[in-house]
Specification:
Layout (H helix, E strand, L loop, with lengths): L22 H12 L12 H8 L17 H8 L6 E10 L8 E4 L2 H12 L3 E6 L19 H7 L19 H19 E11 L4 H12 L4 E8 L13 E8 L2 H6 L6 E2 L3 H14 L4 H13 L15 E3 L2 E7 L34 H9 L3 E2 L9 E5 L5 E2 L4 E3 L2 H12 L10 H11 L5 E4 L6 H15 L7 E6 L9 H8 L5 H14 L13 E7 L16 H21 L3 H14 L7 E4 L9 E4 L4 E5 L8 H12 L6 E3 L6 H11 L3 E3 L1
Parallel strand pairs: 2-15, 2-16, 3-4, 3-14, 5-13, 14-15, 19-20, 20-21
Antiparallel strand pairs: 1-16, 4-6, 5-6, 7-12, 8-9, 9-11, 10-11, 17-18, 18-19
């Protein structure tokens, strides 16, 4: 969004257009603020100084390790190019909008959408999860063509009656990998800026591009921020010719691993099923009159019924039973690393020294060892020939570090998804419970989670289920989700596509929205609605402001084009504002505020102290402003005086208005006492 344009001589075309921030200019500004010595007196970056910084010894290598592909430079430029697009609220498809609390599903091309979110949601997202289209040699429509030709974009995504034409990416193409890499590269660059410093990104991928994807993530996030590669065993394919490749990967990166380490942040997950086992244990103790051998037999029967891919499977390792419940007594008592203490420990029965662990005892002193033994944490073997071990009680330690190998059968996920719709309308969905585990592991109630390849809506479903579990534990705060999905036309040649179309679901984004709606409202024979949950739907569209359609004369100079644009604005927008209804007014407010850093779940309240103009007080969780979008009237002198009085009283409000509603004098005055708290466009 353009800033103050009082000095007409300095106004540029970009300053008159309602755009998102220019990523390139932002990066240069930060670099200049931190390291002004890298710039010339004219304010341009000095390549010699920059080269000296990265190559202080002036050693020039003709060969070096780097990752290149055709289109990489263009994809990076595209990531930092601002957009004039906007997001428009779709009330009809929203669900329980009053209880959305920031939950959104956005229908639109995801690169443009990420750029639109950047100003308001920069460093606000705790976790990003994406399951992008795998590079299988088939079509995918994530083309970066919105800015180049909006008309083609709407046709391609199916937003018009003509449907879409997919961009073919056959394996025989010389740019087979390059096209996919460019698509991912630009989006990951923008997405990183949305993450909190203690945030995470998780990307699902298969064998075809895992190595290339990892190199992109290493480049954007830094390979030192890789936390792990998770492997999900999905199923065995008996018709495979060579090997049955039945697994996928999830690459997990921190935005800043050193920040996590410095702040002693560790990740732990609650063991699924602990509360259930505790309830069963208490019932069995009463049933068997505290005969723990009989209790153990029945507990083991319960364990055997747990499937391999069940998230409760880890608790089945607690196979011994006593009055404290299931426990293990095989925990490692070794000192981590080498060179641990090697004091003498006498066996309680034989009174002979026990065998010392190879790396020494885990506990620093003999006194500490026996304190742990008294508390029940250390158990001895039959005699001194067996090294003592750590005992862990299931009911006392119900959290665990998440492993990197998981079993989650694809058929189970598909069956679960089909039960929501009553039929197959989407192929190969991710199981929401797998993602729920990740959400609970990487985020806390109140955090924001983003998925910009939303697909079937599994991540939103996972967030809702994580919130339900938190509510059952008495936690009031809820995690929030943003899902972005391009309105891709459903493939009617597939059985799932036929079923979807029969249900009136024309686009993949329609499935995303409908799935989350059914989860909230309840589905199946025994529906369990979530009355306290909701979400808003937004659609990516061209800017509400007609000026964005202006095409400058390439033969004219900047000053001439600026004057032409000003006349264009006066003519087109005067007519535009005259036709605005309540819905159009809301869309303009949303665009203006989103591009000025306000999150879309802002509140808008009439500020009654202003009598001569309609002024609203706008608030979101991070900032506030006074906004006057007077379409066909001028900002009155009394309004300016009240703003000055607020500023002089120390409040210094952030004020946003239309430039066309201000005289030159009024603009100058507002800029004088509000400074950069004043925006006119």
């Amino acid at each position: 969004m353009s800033q103050d344009t009082t000095n007409d001589d300095s106004v540029t075309l970009n300053e008159l257009l309602p755009t998102t921030p220019d990523g390139r200019e932002e990066r240069l500004a930060v670099l200049k603020r931190l390291y002004p010595d890298l710039f010339t007196n004219e304010g341009r970056i000095n390549p010699d100084e920059l080269k000296q910084l990265v190559e202080p010894n002036e050693v020039h290598e003709s060969e070096r390790y780097e990752f290149k592909w055709y289109g990489k430079a263009a994809s990076k430029r595209e990531a930092f190019t601002p957009t004039t697009a906007t997001l428009v609220y779709d009330e009809a498809r929203s669900v329980n909008a009053a209880k959305a609390d920031g939950n959104m599903i956005i229908e639109g091309e995801n690169l443009e959408t990420l750029k639109l979110l950047l100003n308001a949601y920069r460093e606000q997202v705790k976790c990003i999860y994406i399951d992008p289209p795998y590079n299988t040699g088939k079509d995918f429509i994530y083309r970066d063509n919105y800015k180049k030709d909006k008309t083609n974009y709407w046709d391609d995504t199916g937003a018009t009656e003509n449907g879409i034409q997919l961009e073919s990416n056959p394996e025989t193409s010389g740019r087979f990998h390059s096209d996919w890499l460019s698509m991912m590269h630009s989006r990951i660059i923008v997405a990183r800026s949305l993450l909190l410093q203690n945030g995470y990104i998780v990307v699902s991928i298969d064998d075809a591009e895992v190595s290339n994807l990892k190199r992109i993530l290493n480049e954007v996030f830094g390979e030192e921020n890789l936390l792990g590669t998770m492997v999900w065993d999905k199923n065995r394919k008996n018709d495979a010719k060579f090997f049955s490749v039945g697994h996928e990967y999830m690459l997990v990166y921190a935005k800043d691993k050193s920040f996590l380490t410095e702040n002693k942040i560790v990740l732990r997950a609650k063991k699924d099923g602990v509360a259930e086992v505790k309830e069963i244990f208490e019932e069995l103790v009463e049933k068997h009159a505290a005969d723990y051998e009989e209790v153990k037999k029945d507990i083991h029967k319960f364990y055997r019924a747990i499937e391999k891919d069940d998230p409760r499977k880890p608790i089945t390792r607690f196979r011994k039973i006593d009055e404290k419940g299931p426990f293990r007594d095989d925990g490692n008592i070794n000192w981590p690393g080498t060179g641990g203490p090697r004091y003498e420990v006498l066996h309680p029965e034989t009174k002979k020294p026990c065998r010392v662990p190879r790396s020494g005892w885990r506990f620093p002193t003999e006194q500490r060892f026996w304190e742990e033994h008294e508390s029940g944490r250390i158990v001895f073997g039959e005699d001194e020939t067996t090294t003592p071990a750590i005992r862990t009680n299931l009911f006392e330690q119900d959290n665990q570090v998440l492993g990197t190998v998981h079993f989650s059968y694809a058929q189970t996920a598909s069956d679960m998804f089909d039960s929501i719709f009553g039929d197959r309308v989407f192929d190969n969905p991710k199981h929401f419970d797998d993602l729920r585990i990740l959400v609970e592991y990487l985020t806390l109630p109140g955090d924001l989670v983003l998925d910009f390849f939303a697909g079937s809506g599994s991540l939103a479903h996972a967030v809702l289920m994580a919130n339900l579990r938190s509510q059952e534990e008495g936690i009031e705060k809820s995690r929030r989700f943003i899902g972005v999905q391009i309105p891709e036309t459903i493939d009617s040649s597939k059985p799932s596509g036929e079923n979807a179309l029969a249900m009136g679901l024309q686009k993949i984004s329609s499935i995303t929205i409908e799935r989350v709606r059914r989860v909230i409202e309840g589905y199946g024979d025994s529906p369990l609605p979530l009355p306290d949950a909701g979400f808003k739907v937004y659609k990516l569209q061209k800017s509400n402001f007609p000026r964005c359609e202006f095409k400058p004369d390439p033969e004219a100079d900047e000053e001439t084009n600026v004057e032409t644009l000003r006349r264009y604005i006066d003519e087109k927008e005067a007519a535009f504002f005259l036709t605005l209804d309540d819905k159009g007014e809301q869309a303009v407010f949303d665009e203006v505020l989103l591009k000025n850093g306000f999150q879309l779940h802002y509140s808008r309240t009439r500020y009654d102290d202003f009598k001569d103009n309609t002024v609203y007080e706008i608030n979101d969780s991070n900032r506030n402003a006074l906004v006057c979008l007077a379409w066909n009237e001028s900002i009155q002198e009394s309004t300016i005086k009240q703003l000055r009085d607020l500023s002089e009283s120390g409040q210094r409000p952030f004020f946003i208005c239309l430039e066309r509603s201000l005289s030159t004098t009024a603009k100058w005055n507002l800029k004088h006492f509000l400074g950069n708290h004043f925006i006119a466009f």
